[in-house]
Amino acid sequence: MAESLNFTGRWSLKGMTAVVTGGTRGIGHAIVEELAGFGVTVHTCSRNQEELDQCLREWKNKGFDVTGSICDLFHRDQREKLMETVSSIFHGKLNILVNNAAKGMIKDAVDYTPEDISSIMSTNFESVFHLCQLAYPLFKASEYGSIVSISSNSSVVAIPSLSVYEASKGAVNQITKNLACEWAKDNIRVNAVSPGLIRTSL
């Protein structure tokens, strides 16, 4: 846990600001604590108010500077509201965006419905691209930006019954390359991390 680590004498991110989507569980929760442990002021989001409130209380007790708000990344208007909140809290500037939240679904390829496909692609890919677009002017204002999107090793291998999830993560990989190329001139770094299966809630 971040609270047990000794950061004395190590590099610091104090003064930086970050948004981490889906920060109340699993990988996202660990990312929030790691960034906060390095001195970053973090804003995260969740679809569950009770879960978010519990995490915020725990982080406050640990001395972490973390705020949070409710957001279902499937909905475009909620993504826009999230980034409006972030802009207000961080005074129109942002340093780090971690696209972590995702939706998984296990079905045989022939059983996916149009609604399934829309839900997965909107949450896992469209929201990533849209949040990057919304964060762009905030990065420009801070004169520095770093985007890290959580992809998956399943984006480059075939795993039965995960076809749409894998496609969504493959799209994340490609847009990462495109944005890294296009926004390098603006001092914005764009990367994706592709973990394997991790025993945690999604």
For this entry, give a set of tags:
6-stranded parallel sheet, globular, alpha/beta, 202 residues, 5 helices, disordered N terminus, 6 strands, Rossmann fold, 16% strand, 44% helix
Tell me roughly what share of residues is in helical segments.
40-55%
Q: Supply the CATH architecture.
A: 3-Layer(aba) Sandwich
Low-confidence stretches: 1-6
Query: Count of helices?
Result: 5
**Strand line-up across the major sheet:** 3-2-1-4-5-6
Indicate the radius of gyration in whole angstroms.
17 Å
Beta-strand content bin: 15-25%
The CATH homologous superfamily is called NAD(P)-binding Rossmann-like Domain
CATH topology call: Rossmann fold
Topology, number of strands: 6
Task: Report, as a whole number of angstroms, the end-to-end distance.
Answer: 19 Å
Spell out the helices and strands N to C: EHEHEHEHEHE
Give the overall shape: globular
Largest sheet: 6 strands, parallel
Give the total of domains.
1
- Quick one: CATH class? Alpha Beta
Overall pLDDT level: 92
Briefly note the structural class of the backbone: alpha/beta
Keywords: NADP, Oxidoreductase
Protein name: Tropinone reductase I
InterPro entries: NAD(P)-bd_dom_sf, SDR_fam, TR
Organism: Hevea brasiliensis (Para rubber tree)
Describe, in plain words, how this protein is organized in 3D.
This protein is of the alpha/beta class and 202 residues long. It has a single domain, classed as NAD(P)-binding Rossmann-like Domain (Rossmann fold, 3-Layer(aba) Sandwich), CATH 3.40.50.720. The protein is built from five helices and six strands, in the order βαβαβαβαβαβ. The protein has a six-stranded parallel beta sheet with strand order 3-2-1-4-5-6, with helices on both faces. Helix 5 links the parallel strand 5 (145-150) and strand 6. Helix 4 (114-142) runs parallel beside helix 5 (163-183). The longest helix is centred in the middle third of the chain and has 29 residues, at 114-142. The two termini are 19 Å apart. This is Tropinone reductase I. It holds the Pfam family adh_short. Keywords: NADP, Oxidoreductase. Belongs to the short-chain dehydrogenases/reductases (SDR) family. SDR65C subfamily.
